[in-house]
Design goal:
Oligomer: single chain
Bound molecules: glutamine
Number of domains: 2
Helix content: 25-40%
Number of helices: 16
Shape: globular
Low-confidence stretches: none
Number of strands: 11
Mean pLDDT: 97
Structural class: alpha/beta
CATH class of the largest domain: Alpha Beta
Strand order of the largest sheet: 1-3-2-4-6-5-10-11-9-7-8
CATH architecture of the largest domain: Alpha-Beta Complex
Order of helices and strands: HHEHEHEHEHEEHEHHEHHHHEHHEEH
């Protein structure tokens, strides 16, 4: 049975259709693996088999295919904790739109994955329920904030998982765990039922081993939703149709020179990115260097905007509307006790920071400047896409780092978002694909970024690349 642990969705569908395995057997296998690899800290809860089977239909593009859900996406009658003590007993009464759509396609939801508390982090270390480890190297982080979703797929606990990406939380852990991670155009996937962090940046995204699988799961969840007025008027479609195996004729790629020549970029990631581009050039793509000047200000802009929005969004966790109440002598003390004991230190720091940058006398200096940078990166990317089809840069600057490595260097941790946050600021789609391994065996990732609603081109290109490489077929020795 364990032969199927690292199977793709594509091959599982065939195995199920040929009756080589049954759905209950598959669930039993993944449940057993979740237990066996509990020490990875990837999974917060695996549901019992009966309730898993009851939740979905038996037909659809994902019929019988199990996957995990990041614990900030609501599943009806299940806990949604955001890996925070303040929500540890919070049970959702409804399905997020993405969840309802997955169930409609027959997908089976195995459980909830660990994450940085309220999706705030880049390493899986800020969860209130224990750190997540990287399946490729247990001493290292899997990236974050969708740490558990990435670790679960990389460790063969499921073939797919949902994550959320506000500043890189799907792409960066995908890169650090050797997976494909897709962050869609802002507004293409409904945020209904996703616990808000930075609402103008948040997006649900998909983690899988292959581009094909990613497009398949993505097709189930993408498209306009009347429950989220920020969704775009784009209907549901089958994104696997764009996977032809070859690249678009005349494809031009802009390699972001400010990224590839960034002093902090690890040489092995630089080399892997350039090698990956050669593979695309051999298929006929033209690559040229392109400068995106505002790139260097994006991490700071993201820092301010995400904290400002987080401070507002997290005001609802007050022990009255949401959150486990910690009593006090009076109302004010109850709020204070609830919020000071319910949130972890990273979340509290961000709420303080967010309120500070929005406060009278500081808003102009910080928030307004940050919005200016946001407009600049949007404009620069829009202009770039007039001449080229896709932009490329690494997903992350360094391979998976040791757990605790940045305990005393928060700035270094915040710089993890350097290559990913610009994409959220601009609201455009991007995919991270595996492009190799470091000499000490850690996965490396590269991003393909496209203009608004260019998901088909992104999938097509990533798929054509993956057909020529075998990075995605490697599995960690656990
Ligand atoms: N690492 C970033 C942060 O800590 C991104 C998080 C995310 O995308 N949810 O805010």
């Amino acid at each position: 049975m364990n032969n199927y642990a690292f199977s793709t969705i594509e091959s599982l569908r065939k195995a199920l259709a040929a009756k080589e395995i049954s759905v209950p057997e598959l669930i039993a296998m993944y449940r057993a693996r979740a237990q066996k690899f509990e020490h990875l800290g990837a999974v917060l809860e695996t549901f019992d088999t009966d309730s898993i089977l009851k939740s979905g239909t038996t037909t659809g593009t994902l019929a019988g295919i199990p996957g995990y859900i990041k614990d900030n996406i609501c599943q009806a009658n299940r806990i949604t904790s955001c890996a925070s003590n303040i929500l540890k007993n919070f049970r959702s009464t409804y399905d997020a739109t993405a969840i309802a759509r997955l169930k409609n396609q027959g997908a089976l939801l195995l459980g909830r994955t660990n994450m940085d508390e309220f999706a705030m982090g880049s390493s899986g270390e800020t969860s209130a329920f224990g750190k997540t480890r990287n399946p490729w190297n247990f001493e290292c982080v899997p990236g974050g904030s969708s740490s558990g979703s990435a670790a679960a797929v990389a460790a063969g606990l499921a073939p797919w998982a949902l994550g959320s990406d506000t500043g890189g939380s799907v792409r960066q852990p995908a890169a650090l765990c050797g997976l494909v991670g897709m962050k869609p155009t802002y507004g293409l996937v409904s945020r209904y039922g996703l616990v808000a962090y930075g609402s103008s940046l948040d997006s649900i995204g998909v983690l899988t081993r292959t581009v094909y699988d990613n497009a398949l799961v993505f097709s189930a969840i993408a498209g306009q939703d009347e429950r989220d007025s920020s969704t775009l008027s784009v209907g549901q479609k089958d994104y696997t149709q764009s996977l032809t195996g070859s690249i678009k004729k005349g494809l031009t790629i802009g390699l972001i020179e400010d990224a590839i020549n960034a002093p902090a970029l690890h040489p092995e990631i630089k080399k892997a990115t350039l090698d990956a581009l050669k593979v695309l050039e051999e298929q006929g793509a033209t690559v040229r260097l392109i400068s995106i000047k505002s790139l260097e200000y994006c991490a700071a802009s993201y820092f301010i905007i995400s904290r400002a929005e987080a401070a507002s969004n997290l005001a609802r966790f007050d022990g009255v509307r949401y959150g486990s109440r910690v009593p006090g002598k009076n109302l004010l003390e109850m709020y204070e006790n609830t919020r000071s004991q319910g949130f972890g230190s990273e979340v509290k720091t961000r709420i303080l920071m967010g309120n500070y940058v929005l406060s009278v006398g500081h808003a102009d200096e910080f928030y307004t400047s940050a919005q200016r940078v946001r407009r600049a990166i949007r404009k620069e990317m829009e202009d770039a896409f007039k001449d080229i089809d896709l932009l490329v840069m690494p997903t992350h600057a360094v391979p998976a780092f040791k757990i605790g490595a940045y305990d005393n260097n928060k700035l270094e941790m915040d710089l993890q978002d350097y290559f990913t946050a610009p994409v959220n600021l601009a609201g455009v789609p991007a995919i991270s694909v595996p492009v190799g391994f470091s000499q000490d065996g850690k996965p490396l990732g590269m991003q393909l970024i496209g203009p608004h609603l260019s998901e088909e081109l992104i999938f097509q290109t990533a798929y054509a690349y993956q057909q020529k490489t075998d990075w995605h077929t490697k599995t960690p020795s656990l």
